[in-house]
Amino acid sequence: MQVQGYFDLRFEAVKEAFASLFDDPQERGAALCVQVGGETVLDIWAGVMDKDGQQAWHSDTIANLFSCTKPFAAVVALQLVGEGKLELDAPVARYWPEFAAAGKERITLRHLLSHQAGLPALHQLLPAEALYDWQTMTTALAAETPWWTLGEGHGYAPITYGWLIGELIRRVEGRGPGESIAARIAKPLGLDFHVGLADSEFERVAHIARGKGNLGDAAAQRLLKVMMSDAAAMSTRSFTNPPSIMTSTNKPEWRRMQQPAANGHGNARSLAGFYAGLLDGRLLESELLAEMTREHAVGEDKTLLTQTRFGLGCMLDQAQVANATYGLGGNAFGHPGAGGSSGFADPERDVAFGFVINNLGPFVLMDPRAQKLARILAQCL
Asked: How far is residue 34's CA from residue 193's CA, in Å, rounded to a whole number?
């Protein structure tokens, strides 16, 4: 496979490993960007971006990064905390009065950011089109009864996180969360990253498709079994209510909306640039970064049915858990996206890592493709 772009010769082994991903005939297109100490050492891409395999992946190809988007929303919220406009431990209802309904008056921004609020899904089934109606979704969440009692563990909120954090940002900033992410993160750092994509950018978005045949690891199979057998389970509802969540990634209305849990569009460069901006202090004061990357929740995840470990809006490394390590140092923090994209920082080695792919794998947390690249990167450092 012809790999395009730049790589420092010290990291040739990483480039070779990236090229070898395409030995799998199902692989379509991908990009990798790594910064070490703020310097770009790899910025490479290969493969195809379109549905029919006719269009090459280009330097400016962007893709839906799914949950890699979550830390961007968290950083905006934490910047607002730093400015005194939000408080981590104030009740959400202080900023969003309707949210106090159904026993949620004690839930704080900290609970939302660390997936402890008990709101990973909606009980009541909503129509497919509700996904694109911000007001419908935030009204439903404000009225929602938590799935468990505060203080009794955590459960990842794959999509509701975007409306919960996004509505708080919107109420304080008076603009959509995607606009806040653009103004506070993407524009200042020069990142090609968008939550709410302009129609004029659609032609450079990679088409996303699922790989066939690979059933994934035990965690993936456990979650799939629940989703196939129990439509009312919290895990099932969190991914399928509204039912359009899992099927919308290539649709124009999905690309246009500002849903900062899952519909960020960007490239590997934008992910690496974001984490470099966190490591060098351009995005958050050191105390707030320490708070973001401190362990807030760890253990069996009520939604994902596997062990997860969270800071505030970021997933923390679990070096001893095969499906939950980024593949570099134990202090790494970041976020995987559904199907394989991944962005993270390793503060010990001053590494910022971004990997983007358009052939979705079946894994629940980290994708083995990204992990393999990170492990080989570690050997080069």
From this structure: 16
Closest listed residue to residue 256, CA positions, set 205, 207, 180, 199? 199
How many C-beta neighbours within 10 Å does residue 210 have?
12
Q: What is the pLDDT of residues 134-175, one digit of tens each?
A: 999 999 999 999 999 999 999 999 999 999 999 999 999 999
Structure tokens at 299: 């253990």
Which whole number is the average pLDDT over 336-340?
92
Give the residue extent of every domain in the chain. Answer: 4-72+180-380
Rounded to an integer, what distance in angstroms lies between the CA atom of residue 46 and that of residue 31?
Answer: 7
Residue-level pLDDT at 68:
97
Q: Is 342 a catalytic residue?
A: no
Structurally, what CATH architecture does the domain formed by 4-72+180-380 represent? 3-Layer(aba) Sandwich (3.40)
Q: Which among 20, 59, 67, 114 is annotated as catalytic?
A: 67
Count CA within 13 A, CB hemisphere, residue 147.
25
CA 156, CA 337: separation in Å to the nearest integer?
13
Give pLDDT, residue 214: 77
